[in-house]
Write a structure and sequence with these properties.
Elements lengths: L2 E6 L4 H11 L7 E8 L2 E8 L2 H4 L2 H6 L4 E7 L14 E5 L2 E11 L2 H10 L10 H10 L5 H9 L4 E8 L3 E6 L8 E4 L5 E4 L3 H6 L2 E5 L4 E6 L6 E4 L8 E2 H7 L5 E2 L2 E2 H15 L6 E4 L5 H11 L7 E3 L12 H11 E3 L1 H4 L3 E6 L6 H12 L4 E6 L21 H4 L2 H8 L3 E4 L2 H8 L5 E2 L1 H4 L6
Parallel strand pairs: 14-23, 17-20, 20-21, 21-22
Antiparallel strand pairs: 1-4, 1-10, 2-3, 2-4, 5-6, 6-7, 7-8, 8-12, 9-10, 9-11, 12-13, 15-16, 18-19
Helix pairs in contact: 5-6, 9-10, 9-16, 11-13
């Protein structure tokens, strides 16, 4: 779950890419990087840390030009965030190239073994580097054909931005698992970004989503762009987790405002609930819209009785369990005066490992809450998500190993209720299919 941003034919492109990455910092906090093209030379700056830590004013004196691509990194446990930071840049037969990638390739190991067998030398653990090698070893005369040949060999979820010395290629996988949108900047240039919230910060106008299986080619100094459909039309499967947790609530994905979808999820929870309580409180921040929806539907008072320290990042996307445990205490603090002697409904977006929920219930109990009823605005997560989310094994997923009652006992709540898969589909809209692999185990990309 990374963020990618591309700026094309715009003044001070790298600075605009910086602001786009800043707006999408929630998608990855381990490393950040930007590549820009100026006078047919690609320059890259990247490092571990947040966007504001990696770049300063001197960075933009180095990153010149009207075209730039950027990346915020979210990784699985144990990866070296400096070595595996993006963009990935290299020189090859046709010149220079730089790539950023959001998603996960499911045939990455097989590809890597074949490439190493052919003499390729890898510098990182990233599946993104496979794409670089495939492009470099191709015998096609033009970069466009090399990219198409490479894309036909990879499988999985991916949104890609590829920067050459005079072009930017934007590519989305055939199922559109991860979001990617196209906008127009105020100075006439283009922006491509993982989420539309990046457009808002830059004052860009949303044009459309990049279609599943589509490649758009932008050329330096040219207003028009070329669109190529790389695959036969499929039934798109946008990841439901974008709506549940990952995307910022003010982003629009596939025509749906994430905030409104989350409110619907909360309202459905309230309709099915038989709990009598005094208050509805969210686990901030991602549980807030669902809790509002629950409160409106149930008529119960809504209180922000858990205060979040916004200088601490998201716990689910932290790379180790030890860091996640510490950050729960650093990040969240309950207000005793609002909770003492109260029966409360606590709304959260999901339960993955259960450790965060357990600590939240413990904190609320210590703050004086009489009854704690957990309501989860998603179904039970029972299967590893292999398309870019850090749930690599069933052993880590509490609902894959325990019943709802057992999970309730583990986290220490008085009751626990999830949405069903059908209820989630109803909230998302039944006009299309979604990637629900975390809930139903349907690994549709073979």
């Amino acid at each position: 779950m990374c963020a990618i941003v591309g700026i094309i034919n715009s003044n001070d492109a790298a600075r605009s890419a910086y602001y786009g990455l800043f707006a999408t910092q929630h998608r990855g906090q381990e490393a950040s990087g930007i590549s820009s093209s100026f006078e047919h030379k690609i320059t890259t700056i990247k490092n571990s840390g947040l966007v504001t830590e990696v770049f300063d004013e001197k960075s933009f004196e180095i990153l010149k030009g009207s075209m730039a691509i950027g990346h915020n990194r979210y990784s699985t446990a144990g990866s070296d965030s400096i070595k595996d930071a993006q963009p990935v840049s290299a020189k090859y037969a046709l010149g220079e190239i730089s790539i950023v990638h959001n998603g996960n390739l499911i045939n990455k190991q097989e590809m890597r073994e074949n490439l190493v067998g052919d003499g390729a030398i890898f510098q990182s653990n990233m599946d993104t580097e496979n794409i670089l090698h495939l492009i470099a070893k191709s015998q096609e005369k033009h970069l466009k054909e090399r990219i198409i040949e490479a894309i036909k060999q990879i499988k999985g979820a991916y949104c890609l931005l590829i920067l050459s010395r005079s072009k930017v290629f934007a590519i989305r996988d055939p199922y559109g698992v991860r979001p990617l949108s196209l906008g127009r900047l105020k100075d006439g240039g283009y922006i491509v970004a993982s989420e539309t919230c990046a457009f808002d910060l830059l004052g860009a106008k949303f044009i459309r989503d990049i279609e599943p299986g589509e490649m758009i080619i932008f050329s330096e100094g040219k207003d028009e762009f070329q669109s190529i459909m790389l695959f036969e039309k499929t039934n798109p499967r946008i990841c439901a987790f974008e709506y549940i947790y990952f995307a910022r609530p003010d982003s629009v994905i596939d025509g749906k405002l994430v905030y409104e979808v989350r409110q619907k999820l909360g309202a459905i929870l309230a309709k099915k609930s038989k709990i009598k309580a005094d208050l509805v409180i969210p686990v901030p921040d991602s549980g807030v819209p669902a809790a509002l929806g629950y409160a409106k539907q149930s008529g119960l008072p809504f209180e922000m009785a858990i205060v979040r320290n916004h200088y601490v990042g998201r716990t689910f996307i932290e790379p180790s369990q030890e860091i996640r445990n510490l950050k729960v205490k650093l990040k969240l603090n309950p207000m005793s005066e609002a909770l003492k002697g109260k029966s409360i409904v606590v709304v959260d977006d999901s339960i993955v490992r259960g450790t965060t929920s357990k600590k939240i219930v413990e904190m609320l109990r210590n703050a004086g809450a009489k009854e704690i009823h957990m309501k989860i605005a998603a179904p039970e997560i029972k299967f590893p998500e292999i398309y870019g989310i850090d749930t690599p094994t069933k052993a880590e997923l509490i609902s894959a190993n325990k019943s709802c009652d057992e999970v309730c006992e583990y986290i220490g709540a008085d009751s626990l209720e999830f949405l069903s898969i059908d209820e989630l589909k109803n909230a998302l809209g039944n006009e299309r299919e979604y990637s629900l692999v975390s809930f139903d185990g349907d690994y549709f990309i073979k």
